[in-house]
Amino acid sequence: MPSRESCEVHKEDKSLVQKAKREANQEDILAAALGMRMGPQKPAATFWQPLKLFAYSQLTSLVRRASLKESERAPRSEKVHNFKVHTFRGPHWCEHCASFMWGLMAQGVKCTAADRSELIPLYIFLSDCGLNVHKQCSSLVPSDCKPDLRHIRKVYSCDLTTLVKAYNTARPMVVDMCIREIESRGLKSEGLYRISGFSDSVEEVKMAFDKDGEKTDISVNAYEDINIITGALKLYLRDLPVPVISYDAYPRFIEAAKLTDSEKKLEAFREALALLPPSHSDTLKYLMAHLKRVTQNEKFNLMNAENLAIVFGPTLMRAPNMDAISALNDIRYQRQVVEALIKNEDVLF
Fold it and tell me: Rounded distance, CA 294 to CA 303, Å?
């Protein structure tokens, strides 16, 4: 009759054999997921060890991300992810739960850039942050899409929120750089913003921003005519896929402009401004403060709040999904909105 010691040794040997079989089976599954074949001529350790090291380096950051407390995440986000089914090459781990993404095809979903045709009639413009997660984890991921700068191919026509998140700025660089240049040498220029710059030069500035970004030279040495810089700024604002005054906030601004009681009108504008996403709100605030300074030089540039509102009304806000007649009727209210924002800049922002 076998002794107790021999039975325990036998059980221990059996468990080690079973463990080895499980590990070998895991290696075979992973090899299949990677599209590789493992023959007897290639020892498992040779294949498995580099993957262990790679997995460890990946999981170190992923586990930390997955274990973040809710309070440690961004307090407010205005961009949702655009997840699409994706087939990954090589080993990938879910960036939400930190688990391996098994399979040969369509192992998970990836946040990818939306086409212009996918733009929904809200301020959200879906963009590419490259987040990789399981399909079942996609509904659990916070709406905090942070676009990757590598995917930003141009500045003009790029969604405002996408641009500021990619560059980690409060406002688009075009707005900041153009306004600084205008205020440094153009506030007293007659017809500022009303007079158009040479269209070819304005297009040249646009192409320079798309190519060089914040390194673009718009100094007096490059463009002596300040109207070229104002034209470039207006073109940037017109080209935004979602206007500065976003589509979802548009009706509230128009309703506020129609009110006759001054106190109720100001309160309605405050409520409408609260609907704007942070990047749009910061940009509008900065722009209105600038236009207020332009009006303070009216005796030189001949541009008051009403004149500027005529220029910037259709530039800053566009009617969402309206017929031509309704959109045409809204033009005068668009002007009233911008005029009120300029005149009351100090109390509204």
Answer: 7
Could you please state the CATH topology (level 3) that the domain comprising 19-151 is classified under. Answer: Wheat Germ Agglutinin (Isolectin 2); domain 1 (3.30.60)
pLDDT surpassing 50 at residue 129: yes
Question: Residue 117 has what DSSP assignment?
Answer: G
Q: Is the dihedral of CA 90, 53, 134, 128 positive or negative?
A: negative
Q: Which residue type does 8 have?
A: E
pLDDT at residue number 120: 38
* Widest CA span in the chain: 113
Whether the model clears a pTM of 0.70, i.e. scores above it, the answer is no
What sections of 186-304 are H helices per DSSP?
199-212, 226-239, 250-258, 262-273, 278-295, 298-301
The order of strands in the sheet holding 132-133 is 83-86, 108-111, 132-133
Among 158, 157, 156, 126, residue whose Cα is nearest residue 143: 126
Q: Most confidently modeled of 29-33, 65-69, 78-82, 237-241?
A: 237-241
Give the integer Cα–Cα distance in Å for 127 and 112. Answer: 6
Compute and round to an integer the Cα radius of gyration of the chain.
Answer: 29
CA angle 322–328–329, rounded 5-degree value: 95
Axis-axis angle for helices 199-212, 226-239 (nearest 10): 60
Do residues 191 and 307 touch, judged by C-beta distance below 8 A?
no
Cα–Cα distance between 339 and 329 in angstroms, integer? 17
User: Are the C-beta atoms of residues 172 and 239 closer than 8 Å to each other?
Assistant: no
From-to residues of CATH 1.10.555.10 in the chain: 160-348
Instruction: Return phi, psi of residue 15, to 5°.
Output: -65, -35
pLDDT at 29: 47
The burial of 289, by beta-carbon neighbours within 10 Å (0-12 exposed, 13-18 middle, 19 or more buried), is given as middle
CATH code at 160-348: 1.10.555.10
List where CATH 3.30.60.20 sits in the chain.
19-151
Helices then strands, each counted (H, E), the chain: 14, 3
CA gap 253, 245 in Å, rounded: 9
Q: Of 199 and 120, which is predicted with more confidence? A: 199
